[in-house]
Specification:
InterPro entries: Alkaline_phosphatase_core_sf (IPR017850), DeoB (IPR010045), Metalloenzyme (IPR006124), Phosphopentomutase_DeoB_cap_sf (IPR024052)
CATH superfamily of the largest domain: Alkaline Phosphatase, subunit A
GO molecular function: magnesium ion binding; manganese ion binding; phosphopentomutase activity
EC number: 5.4.2.7
Number of domains: 2
CATH architecture of the largest domain: 3-Layer(aba) Sandwich
Structural class: alpha/beta
Organism: Peptostreptococcus russellii
Distance between the termini: 15 Å
Helix content: 25-40%
Strand order of the largest sheet: 10-9-11-1-12-13-2-14
Oligomer: single chain
GO biological process, one term: metabolic compound salvage
């Protein structure tokens, strides 16, 4: 396939956890009936005319009586081919890697032999070591930590090892070094957690709050990603949000840390004024971290509305040679009893001057179709198992 010289830049935005309804195998994951979008549209605070205009409610299986006659974007429902429902595996698949085995989880905490070695190398004991809410764990263990200096270690239903520490007791730099030690130890089939996460907090007992100094340490992707191909082709790859962390920095040439969704979109809007050729890959984590995991339907709905306002600004700024793709990495239905990720379909909306409007791309078999399509746009090798949908969209 020859290079489409009319397209110079792709902006790929992941609305972290923005699921649109259960996958066929959701029951195997305890997620039968989950529908993140279906939960939040019921809120009076939900208002997303720009997503609607792009075709969100025209997607196959989204039966919420909000479809429009002539969407300006094209659209698809994406199935996750990988085994899992976590951030790392979801993003890897969007970038072209299908994971046939789920990353290990730790419902009973981490093995004692690992904790002993970790404590030996850090010089600090560990407390908690069980699945826990991030806000609850500092409420329940924060005082002990401040009195002893012991590290609060915990996990969730995801493949994560998290370390919480008060910034007055353990400096952020020191906490990051402990995470690097954990990342070095947590490898292999038994211990290879997808992410090690630093969770610093501040405040006094009863008023502990987490700070923006979170940092993720991911496993290296186990294969070639679309970013690898773009770098090999001499093109640019820019990360916004935790993209750099999710891919352990591999083939992300520049990165932009953000405070929240609004800041992430402001950074992206600024990048639209820059001259580059290649991919700008954006993760907006607040949907998941602040609202999905806390079962905050109203907050999730408001975050969607806020994003949509900035999306309108983005659509106005797009150059003729730009393509915008909006998708998600999994679900996190805030209306279910669970506070964990949910095994759901995700949306795919694509828009640009060189992209046909209103094409229904139906249900796709893998998130990796996105990587394959970007590979076709830039005429790279495209050595991914996904199927490109570019031919159906080219004008």
């Amino acid at each position: 396939m020859t290079r489409n010289e009319n397209i110079k830049r792709v902006f790929l935005i992941v609305l972290d956890s923005f699921g649109i309804g259960e996958l066929p195998d959701a029951k195997e994951y305890g997620d039968e009936g989950s529908n993140t979008l279906g939960a939040i549209v019921k809120s009076e605070r939900y208002n997303t005319p720009n997503l609607q205009k792009l075709g969100l409610f025209n997607i196959e299986g989204v039966e919420l009586d909000r479809e429009i006659e002539s969407p300006i974007g094209s659209f698809a429902r994406m199935k996750e081919a990988s085994k899992g429902k976590d951030t790392t595996i979801g993003h890897w698949e969007i970038a072209g890697i299908i994971s046939n085995s789920p990353l290990p989880t730790f419902p009973n905490g981490f093995p004692e032999d690992f904790l002993e070695e970790f404590s030996k190398r850090t010089g600090r004991k560990c407390i908690c070591n069980k699945p826990y809410s991030g806000t609850d764990v500092i409420r329940d263990y924060g005082k002990h930590h401040m009195e002893t200096g012991d590290l609060i270690v915990y996990t969730s239903a995801d493949s994560v090892f998290q370390i919480a520490a008060h910034e007055d007791i353990v400096s952020v730099k020191e906490l990051y070094s402990y995470c690097e030690i954990a990342r070095e130890l947590l490898t292999g089939e038994r211990l290879g957690a997808g992410r090690v996460i630093a969770r610093p907090f501040i405040g006094e007992e009863g008023k502990f709050t987490r700070t923006p100094n979170r940092h993720d340490y991911s496993l290296l992707p186990p294969g070639k990603t679309i970013m690898d191909e773009l770098v090999d082709a001499g093109l640019d790859t820019i990360g916004v949000g935790k993209i750099y962390d999710i891919f352990a920095g591999k083939s992300i040439q520049s990165t932009n840390r953000i405070k929240d969704n609004t800041d992430g979109m402001n950074v992206t809007l600024d990048l639209m004024d820059k001259d580059f050729e290649g991919l700008c890959f954006v993760n907006l984590v607040d949907f998941d971290m602040k609202y999905g995991h806390r079962n905050d339907i109203e907050g999730y709905a408001q975050a969607s509305t806020d994003f949509d306002i900035q999306l309108g600004q983005m659509l106005d700024k797009m150059r003729d040679e730009d393509v915008l793709i909006i998708t998600a990495d999994h679900g996190c239905d805030p209306s279910t009893p669970s506070t964990d990720h949910s095994r759901e379909h995700t949306p795919m909306l694509i828009f640009g001057n060189n992209i046909k409007e209103g094409v229904d791309l139906k249900t796709r078999d893998s998130f990796s179709d996105i990587a394959k399509t970007i590979a076709d746009i830039f005429n790279t090798a495209g050595d991914f198992s996904g199927k490109s949908f570019l031919k159906e969209l080219e004008i």
